[in-house]
Amino acid sequence: MNKLLSEAEAYLTLGFVPSVRRASEYLDTLLIPGTPEAAETELDSSSLLRQILAENTYSKGHKEIVIPLTGGMDSRTILGAALDIFDLKAILCITVGVESFSDCMVAAETCRRVGVCHERVDPTALEWNIDNLVEMARERFAVTGSFVTLETLIAFGAISDRVGDQRPIISGYLGDAISGKHLPTEGGRLSGKPVEASFIANNRSISDGSHSPELCALFRSFAADNAYRLEGLPGGAAYDLLDLGFRQSHYIRPNSAAFPICVRPYEDPQWVHHWLSRPLADRIGQQAYLREIQRAFGHVFGTSKPQRLSRYRFIRSFVPRPVLRWIRTRLWGPQRSVAANRGDPRLNKSMAAVVRELLFAFDRRKILPFPTVPALDTTMRRFDNRKFAILQWASSAEIHIRAGNMTT
Known about the structure:
Layout (H helix, E strand, L loop, with lengths): L6 H8 L5 H11 L14 H12 L8 E4 L4 H11 L7 E6 L5 H13 L2 E5 L8 H15 L5 H14 L5 E2 L4 H5 L5 E2 L2 E2 L4 H7 L11 H13 L12 H15 L9 E2 L5 H8 L3 H4 L3 H10 L1 H4 L5 H10 L4 H12 L6 H4 L6 H17 L7 H9 L3 H18 L6
């Protein structure tokens, strides 16, 4: 990264610190020339996923697996594939969140319908301790070179502690990115905006540094220098190079490093090549992916949804997004917020105490032009996602600075 922007400033701008070397090395593992297409092996998407999952679990002697199940498509698709490989009793699904959180509601209903065991990790019951967090941050950074947020350190650590080190955890990581969900679109087509502008706009954290000419130049140059990787891959876009190389490898993937044995089926080069070798139109809006997995795993997705979630999705279909955010936060509180998944300081006293101490220390460093402690005060009175983001990123930065991971 250009040293004109410190690691702390980049982290508070993007949510990660970009490294061209790491991004290039990660693309090397995904976009491997000569990777056979599913069409060449006569496998459709669902059959290919089953094959990848079986090769990395059952064929290696693992007779039981754990799936961190959410209300999203990717983890439930993995569950669908797993049901064709493992006995019902061999599959355990775990969801992090309060009971009324949408992911927990969908996951519980899904597991009940297909007959597998489901457990829930309550983030309000997890203990926060600064010394432990510093050590966890230091250990995770030593393995991944990335700055994992505090609530993710806590939540994924809790899953790892519950599962142990014998059963592989099957991650849905990279599913949405490969199938096209992240592609910037306008009117059903790929956006015509400069790729670096779209990428930065979609990865803004809490600092104003997103318009930094250093960052724009870095991402623009990286996309140009790595364009050759997309030769022969009509479904690939320049945006994929940035999303996979930086956001996914720097920010998302390190979260699952908490698991001693982690299998990431969507990261398999065969899966990546299968989707990027298809027409780009198949990936826009995940059109082909959603159609094909619904057809293959309809028994997992079903037709019924929890009543509350159904009402929310009905309202979402016609209410403007800003109005929806206001309704969601004011009417349902943390149940529809990120705090319902990672922890609410109003409901977890140890979290509130740790975050407050970290924010006071962070403000003394004067990295941001505004104080962050008021964000916690506001959150303690009435939850606000934007204020929560401020305390989330600032407290995480402070922990990584204390751990010696991050420079200011």
